Amino acid sequence: MATSGVSGVNSISSIYSFNNFRSKNPNLLLGGRKVLLFNWRRRRSLWVSNVASDQKHKTKDFSSDEGFTLDVFQPDSTSVLSSIKYHAEFTPSFSPEKFELPKAYYATAESVCDTLIINWNATYDYYEKMNVKQAYYLSMEFLQGRALLNAIGNLGLTGPYADALTKLGYSLEDVARQEPDAALGNGGLGRLASCFLDSMATLNYPAWGYGLRYRYGLFKQLITKDGQEEVSENWLEMGNPWEIVRNDISYPVKFYGEVIEGADGKKEWDGGEDITAVAYDVPIPGYKTKTTINLRLWSTKLAAEAFDLRAFNNGDHAKAYDAQKKAEKICYILYPGDESLEGKTLRLKQQYTLCSASLQDIIVRFERRSGNTVNWDEFPEKVAVQMNDTHPTLCIPELLRILIDVKGLRWKQAWEITQRTVAYTNHTVLPEALEKWSFTLLGELLPRHVEIIKMIDEELLHTIVAEYGTEDLDLLQQKLNQMRILDNVEIPSSVLESLIKSEEGKEQAVEQKEEEGKDDSKDEETEAVKAETTEEEEETEVKKVEVEDAQAKIKRIFGTAPNGQQMVRMANLCVVSGHAVNGVAEIHSEIVKKEVFNEFYELWPEKFQNKTNGVTPRRWLSFCNPELSEIITKWTGSDDWLVNTEKLAELRKFADNEELQSEWRKAKRSNKMKIVSLIKEKTGYMVSPDAMFDVQIKRIHEYKRQLLNIFGIVYRYKKMKEMSPEERKEKFVPRVCIFGGKAFATYVQAKRIVKFITDVGATVNHDPEISDLLKVVFVPDYNVSVAEVLIPGSELSQHISTSGMEASGTSNMKFAMNGCLLIGTLDGANVEIREEVGEDNFFLFGAQAHEIASLRKERAEGKFVPDPRFEEVKTYVRTGVFGPYNYEELIGSLEGNEGYGRADYFLVGKDFPDYIECQDKVDEAYRDQKKWTKMSILNTAGSSKFSSDRTIHQYARDIWRIEPVELP
Where is this region: Disordered (predicted)? Predict the structure, then answer.
């Protein structure tokens, strides 16, 4: 850290003379963000613009038919230094007396934003001028990570900023560490969204992200003697230099109220609770391109006129603040606990706020670009909306509501437009993760939307009846139960009447056939004539009974369960309403088609696609692992691999080269030393860089099987304790086993797993007999910045979920890209990674997806016999060797043959023997460092297909149907 004597920068009064700086740098940004000087082709202009936030902005009339060229000043270290000094004085976020690290960070970030804003405004000015089709990516999470190094790396300004900060007495790395991670996500879903934004910008696709601006995010994780403790995240405490509040961009969002139908049949939703969503914009720069796209985050507040001033002045402050608190708390927490009705309501409010504000904004932009004449049929030709999982599902009824109730379109036209506009990415096969919401709650909160969802459900039911017919009512009932959007809700009258009419027709056909089979004699004709009147009367009575019988039969078969819950299936709503449904790995997409949405796949096979996830190689290799990146660039001949990861495959031909292997090991060692420092800082533990670094970092969940990992460690520890010191060193490769990840605050079993891992670590790490042969470390508060340290220095990474349950995983791609070997099951993207890196370079174990159902059935029938080694571990834990905490509930979840929370649903016991035997193979491979290094190189070379650039190209081509638009 700089002291008062370093470069004279601790005193702001000595920073510099701005007038002198301005006279020497006439083309540089002046006044921070206020005035931007740059050259247009054929003219020089002074331009002050707020394009990204101007709802009423009209397309500029550019003087040249050739378009325009942005002649952006490329700063050197001298001009960067002056810019940082300027912001330290004239864009203050801190007191003026000192220039310490936090202030240095903010001044540096403000300086970088100046360059970003030039590109940002130009990008959207050009999109307005060209009126291009634009993709909008809606996600409840964007796990951005730190922005500074990523931004200057993408802008190609790492050198100038490093040099400038050195002259100010600081290193770029120390300044960058002052930035808190943006707490806008939790796990892979949010990180994927952020990788996608990076690739959209880099590839020059006209795209935009929409999310929520969470004040506290998920939570900050502390590890105490009691396990995980959650405290509020404070990432916004000192402000966020990367965001710009757009006070002129705000939209009303309503809840509750009633639906009013006018004399003309037009419906209007009169909300009972009104809030305002305000836009905060974050620039997302592309790599070595002028394109800078936007992430628009919504924050919620109460409109000033809605504040109850009378109640406040009367002393009823609680009443006056009530509406304000209700509005603001919507954007307090990511995924608030939903065990209570209040929690469920808040989550729904969050989801609807995201959808409503975003859709209103999208439509305003479409109307503005359309000019005086708006052709709504062209909406899908200009707008693509991608729903990242089911959280943004309410954008479907919201778009329909706006088109029908506000814009005056008829149902058929609005429905066709919606289906052509929205698409859905599925991220899970877990039943509990396929969102369902209470029909009653949704109806109370969003009464008009429930009416629209019922209309969609009715359309679907008619489609299903037409597809499967009414001959086999039991089959039809089964299809309706599986495919309906509304679960256990009465069938619409139009469908019910159709089924009753069909059933009556079948009965009449049977009667007619019977009548035709009768052999009426002439003698009987006379008697029939005499009895004609009586028969007609009887026939009338029979028909009446037949109608009643048909109704009773249909209602019996298609009726609702009296005590069953009425739910809205959000995933089904997405599938029905969207024109495309994609999984995120080949195996996941097949499970989606064959199991999760099989009935829909049979009905609409053309909707279903696969889009294997990818990660950005800029953040996840170049910026977080510069040592290895330099080696890759040297051996592949250029840095083209940063935008064309297919070039990584060229490393294969050098995999046996001793010089490359030596450089590779040196880079890995350097990164391991960074992990040593991180572990010391975060936990106090000292670990040896000579040990293998074995890492599992991801959200804590039973299906991800951190429990399998720690049970394997316990088995390893027990065997070590049973051996002499010489035997231990002969048998076991030294390991540092590293965990990281958050357990959701109300997920009790996951929190027990965290507690167990930390208890094992506390025992093992203080055992003098074991010393450096085994260490167990849980790194608290895992986030993107922690991952950027752990991934480059890891040597073995664990992706050991129960097969068929992980949609994709993207951390597996990041690890492989950084030359880390993987141990895992054939699950998610592991399948494709193993194919690319080579079977010999992936440590495979465990049951496969097609076996899981039969294995669970075998367990339920009491036929499963656990391996003695697994039983040995459980017995050992029960001895209390890892402390006094009662782990009976945790261990009990792995026992028994049936019951909630029991019977080892995730097959830890089944896969345990295969897992520990596979770990023996890992030890054997690691002893041969030449072989291990070759495997590491081949993992990086095999990562060529796992760039998010490749994934985005596929989305753009197959789903969004948009083209790149590069600024001239």
Answer: 502-544
Residue 227 φ then ψ, to 5° = 105, -140
At 97 the pLDDT is 81
What is the spatial distance between Cα 180 and Cα 117, in angstroms, rounded to a whole number?
22
Helices (H), 517-595: 522-530, 532-558, 570-577, 586-591
Question: What is the model's pLDDT at position 512?
Answer: 72
Task: Compute the chain's Rg from CA coordinates.
Answer: 32
Beta-bridge partners for 45: 38
Positions marked catalytic:
427, 698-699, 704, 810, 814
Amino acid at 902: R
pLDDT digits (tens, 9 = 90+) for 593-645: 999 999 999 999 999 999 999 999 999 999 999 999 999 999 999 999 999 99
280 phi and psi, to 5 degrees? -120, 125
pLDDT tens column, 709-767 = 999 999 999 999 999 999 999 999 999 999 999 999 999 999 999 999 999 999 999 99
- Structure-token pair, residue 204: 């020059």
What is the reported pTM? 0.90
- CA 404 to CA 401: how far, in whole Å? 5
Q: Would you mind telling me the total number of residues written for the chain in this entry?
A: 968
User: Residue 161 carries which side chain, given as an amino acid letter?
Assistant: Y
Cα separations (Å) of 721 from 379, 715, 764, 883, 922?
69, 10, 10, 17, 21
Q: Could you tell me the two tokens for 931?
A: 């072989």
- Which among 448, 460, 357 has a CA at the least distance from the CA of 404? 448
Q: How far is Cα 258 from Cα 903, in angstroms, rounded to an integer?
A: 47
- C-alpha distances (whole Å) from 656 to each of 649, 652, 663, 937 are 14, 9, 12, 9
